[in-house]
């Protein structure tokens, strides 16, 4: 009889394989390592100055006073806006220029194409620390020191972004572009109206990377700016550490507030990345 | 609407010449099908007409105008691609309307044209869907719609049906042909499928290795192929071609080095046909039998060469049995073995 052969129902946990348990344990350890500093950051931001060396995760007497103080400090708002302006402008510039160059390298055949591509790629191998001196000299020559443009210009276009976009544009079938050519679009409009919407996953990834990189950038903004009104948030926050004593609770409050835009950006764009991956999987 | 003329048209990639100076005149409103095996240059020729490939030599005229140096968008042609090339991020309506991107028509007129094209192609219910939610045949209809709304001087089709299943292909063949009748626009159509060529074309252009072998009406090419390649390429199953010796009714299979090549279509090579009136008789053992319903294909060998003959539906010879198949007078095509060009009939 068929029913006699049916195995008895087993408990769900009995089916969990040992490999799974190891994977989960490792992932949990990794997750804890990542999240602990963040938890301490939020926790410290909620403690009064007298309790910041008390390492309990849940503050004994939680307070929002640090937030009120930091937010009412005009400098913080200014640095927050500076960082926003710099990060948004540089991200928009990267999405535009990296895509334009990546598209050209991926979809047009011209003499010297490979040389240009290799030249762009080779700049990936030069560490930022080495570039800072030429950037500084250049900024001094052009009068860009202590200006927004001075903070932004080195990152307006990146080799990584160009490479990423080129790789994605190569996956766009030429037929789309040729159909558009026959439909009467000029080359710029083909790039903008046809090719760009087809690479939104890559574009979203590039936007997240670029925004994060510029939002947290510290070294170059520190060097190129001297006026406090032009500080970006990471540079400005360090001034909480040098002026009087190190005000950890304020630094942590500022840092906690600084994570919010990146979090918001990721939440806003992640669905594009996920959807992009799904679409690619379903394509004929 | 316009005629298309190719004069000594040449295409080279680096040093390799792939189109060797072809000449062709497509009349206004004509449906011309380029057919040939992969790599014969048919798609390259079409892409040169579209302006997607540069012309290396000779000239292309559309409606009398020399277009060698003219951008695709200024040639007033529309093209339908093998993999549809409809934009996945736009709805069907937006895709079709995209054909009018550069048109100077007003918004309402554009919308009306889109609706009209959708109605003709039975896409009205799907106008607000995205391509991902359409079947292959529907996607191809959207691509045709995008081409149609532009009222182009000529349509270019590059293997538009090869991604569809057999049933849908047959249906789309009829739809495209009907569309041509209704619009009367010049069509240049590329395919490697000789059934598509036979059923749709006003004129077939057979290409091989960058040359035009023969251009003519479908039945003309079927009845009077100019060479062995065309004879074997057009018609299913392929024409039997074998070396023969003798003359008139006395033709007989011969080995290599024979003075003639004889070509006979399987439909003309009948098992058990009467001996009198026969121009060619072939006898050999049966290797396979394929009953198709209305007739049966009988595979057999003569002097080591595989041939196909037809038998009436219920007279199926057994495998290994000796059969004799005969072709009546006038049904045997003769070719010169050296040039493979047609020399006459027997």
Brief characterization of the structure:
The complex is a heterodimer of chains A (284) and B (346). Chain A has 284 residues and is mainly α. Chain A has helices at 2-5, 18-45, 65-72, 74-107, 113-122, 128-142, 148-152, 159-169, 174-183, 187-198, 200-215, 219-224, 233-242, 248-282.
General description of the model:
By secondary structure, chain A is mainly alpha-helical. Chain A has 14 helices and no strands. In chain A, α2 packs antiparallel against α14 (248-282), α8 (159-169) packs antiparallel against α11 (200-215) and α9 (174-183) crosses α10. Mean pLDDT of chain A is 86; it is low at 277-284. Chain B is an alpha+beta fold and 346 residues long. Chain B folds into two domains: 4-229, 3-Layer(aba) Sandwich (Rossmann fold); 237-345, OB fold (Dihydrolipoamide Acetyltransferase, E2P) (Beta Barrel), CATH 2.40.50.140. Chain B has eight helices and 20 strands. In chain B, α2 (92-98) packs parallel to α4. Classes of the chains: A mainly alpha (284), B alpha+beta (346). The interface between A and B is medium-sized, with 17 and 28 residues.
């Amino acid at each position: 009889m068929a029913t006699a052969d049916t195995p008895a129902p087993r408990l769900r946990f009995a089916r969990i394989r040992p490999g799974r348990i190891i994977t989960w344990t490792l992932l949990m350890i990794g997750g804890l390592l990542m999240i602990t500093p963040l938890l301490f950051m939020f926790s410290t931001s909620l403690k009064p100055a007298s309790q910041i060396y008390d390492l309990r995760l849940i503050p004994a007497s939680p307070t929002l006073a640090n937030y009120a103080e930091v937010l009412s400090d005009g400098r913080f708002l200014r640095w927050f806006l500076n960082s926003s302006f710099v990060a948004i402008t540089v991200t928009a510039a990267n999405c535009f220029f990296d895509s334009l160059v990546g598209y050209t390298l991926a979809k047009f055949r011209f003499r010297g194409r490979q040389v240009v591509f290799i030249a762009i790629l080779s700049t990936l191998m030069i560490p930022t620390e080495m570039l800072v001196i030429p950037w500084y000299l250049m900024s001094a020559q052009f009068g860009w020191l202590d200006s927004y443009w001075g903070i932004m210009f080195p990152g307006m276009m990146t080799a990584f972004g160009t490479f990423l976009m080129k790789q994605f544009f190569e996956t766009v079938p030429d037929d789309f572009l040729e159909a558009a050519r026959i439909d009467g679009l000029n080359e710029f409009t083909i790039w903008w109206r046809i090719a760009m919407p087809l690479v939104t996953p890559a574009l979203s990834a590039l936007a997240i990377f670029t925004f994060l990189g510029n939002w947290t950038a510290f070294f170059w903004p520190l060097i190129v700016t001297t006026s406090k009104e032009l500080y970006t948030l990471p540079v400005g926050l360090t001034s909480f550490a040098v002026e009087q004593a190190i005000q950890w609770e304020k630094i942590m409050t500022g840092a906690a507030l600084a994570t919010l835009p990146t979090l918001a950006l990721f939440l806003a764009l992640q669905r594009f990345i996920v959807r992009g991956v799904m679409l690619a999987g379903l394509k004929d | 609407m316009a005629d298309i003329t190719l004069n000594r048209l040449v295409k080279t990639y680096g040093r390799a010449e792939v189109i060797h100076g072809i000449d062709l005149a497509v009349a206004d409103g004509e449906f011309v099908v380029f057919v040939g095996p992969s790599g014969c240059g048919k798609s390259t020729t079409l892409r040169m007409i579209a302006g997607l490939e540069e012309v290396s030599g000779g000239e292309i005229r559309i409606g009398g105008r020399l277009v060698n140096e003219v951008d695709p968008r200024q040639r007033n042609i529309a093209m339908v691609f093998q993999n549809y090339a409809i934009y996945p991020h736009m709805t069907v309506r937006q895709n079709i309307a995209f054909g009018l991107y550069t048109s100077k028509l007003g918004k309402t007129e554009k919308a009306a044209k889109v609706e009209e094209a959708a109605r003709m192609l039975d896409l009205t219910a799907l106008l607000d869907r995205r391509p991902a939610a359409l079947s292959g045949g529907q996607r191809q209809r959207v691509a045709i719609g995008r081409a149609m709304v532009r009222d182009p001087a000529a349509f270019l089709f590059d293997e538009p049906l090869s991604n569809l299943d057999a049933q849908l292909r047959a249906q789309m063949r009829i739809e495209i042909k009907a569309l041509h009748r209704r619009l009367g626009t010049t069509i240049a159509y590329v395919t490697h499928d000789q059934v598509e060529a036979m059923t749709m074309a006003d004129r077939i252009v057979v290409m091989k290795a960058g040359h035009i072998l023969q251009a003519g009406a479908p039945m003309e090419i079927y009845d009077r192929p100019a060479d062995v390649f065309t004879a074997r390429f057009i018609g299913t199953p392929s024409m039997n071609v074998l070396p023969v010796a003798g003359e008139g009714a006395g033709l007989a299979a011969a080995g290599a080095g024979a003075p003639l090549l004889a070509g006979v279509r399987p439909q003309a090579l009948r098992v058990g046909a009467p001996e009198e009136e026969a121009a060619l008789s072939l006898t050999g053992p049966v290797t396979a039998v394929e009953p198709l319903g209305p007739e049966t294909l009988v595979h057999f060998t003569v002097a080591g060469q595989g041939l196909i003959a037809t038998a009436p539906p219920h007279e199926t010879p057994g495998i290994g049995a000796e059969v004799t198949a005969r072709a009546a007078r006038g049904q045997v095509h003769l070719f010169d073995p050296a040039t493979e060009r047609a020399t006459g009939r027997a």
